[in-house]
Amino acid sequence: MLKRGVTHSNDPFHWPVLGTTGKDGCNLRTVILRQLLLPDRILVCYSDARATKAQDIGNYSKVSWLFYHPEKKVQLRISGQATCHRDDQFADDQWAATKITHRLDFCATQPPGTPVHKPSSGLPDFLLKKTPTLLESKRSRKNFMAISCTIDSIDWLMLRALGHRRARFDWDEDRLRATWLIP
Ligand SMILES: Cc1cc2nc3c(=O)[nH]c(=O)nc-3n(C[C@H](O)[C@H](O)[C@H](O)COP(=O)(O)O)c2cc1C
After folding, report:
1. pLDDT by residue (tens digit) across 69-105?
2. Residue 138, helix vs strand vs coil
3. E strands of the chain, at which residues?
4. Which CATH superfamily is domain 2-112+121-181 in?
């Protein structure tokens, strides 16, 4: 299901919620699941490097993910250790894989969350109402960050009218412990 979530943009697992810990408590936001790297159990999403989640992960690397598939009635609660990649090979490779049209997400002049006087996309004038050219999109590379997260545990829940099912998977290094749980 996670693999399908990466490749199918209309699949509910394409938009998980990523939870981080900030100084005032937990911060939740929807992100797009970009990759699942196996056998390393790594989930990948992208962010503006200036966003709150980047600071949160810098201060405390443990994160949580929430996935729910309403048709299959399956919930996954995943926790793991996240790393922010800005200037390394991993970030370069992920950046190379982004579509130019998606790079608009990293082109805002000011950091995400900056208060402004009127509704604004934050994009510079020369990019309004157009997709960036390859050259223009390269300017936003400095704002791009890939977040990788190594999965430590998965809490799996499947809802069924005649009785739900729940299981937990924990990895200690590469050793897996799995157990059924009362839902
Ligand atoms: C459907 C959907 C997909 C989103 N995908 C992403 C994403 O992949 N990466 C991202 O940084 N923000 C994404 N966002 C915006 C975030 O939810 C959030 O508003 C933004 O990242 C700022 O969060 P932060 O300040 O907590 O870092 C998405 C929002 C929606 C509604």
Report:
1. 999 999 999 999 999 999 999 999 999 999 888 888 8
2. helix
3. 17-22, 25-30, 35-37, 42-48, 62-69, 74-85, 144-158, 165-172, 175-181
4. Electron Transport, Fmn-binding Protein; Chain A (2.30.110.10)
Alpha helices in 24-133 (DSSP H): 52-59, 89-97
**Protein residue with its CA nearest to atom 29 in ligand 1:** 30
Task: Give 134 Cα–ligand 1 centroid separation in angstroms.
Answer: 23
Q: Domain locations in the chain?
A: 2-112+121-181
Residues 24-64 pLDDT 10s: 999 999 999 999 999 999 999 999 999 999 999 999 999 99
Question: Measured in angstroms, how far is the CA atom of residue 74 from the centroid of ligand 1?
Answer: 22
Which residue, judged by its Cα, is nearest atom 7 of ligand 1? 31
pLDDT of residue 173: 83
Rounded CA-CA distance 18/68 in Å is 12
pLDDT of residue 148: 98
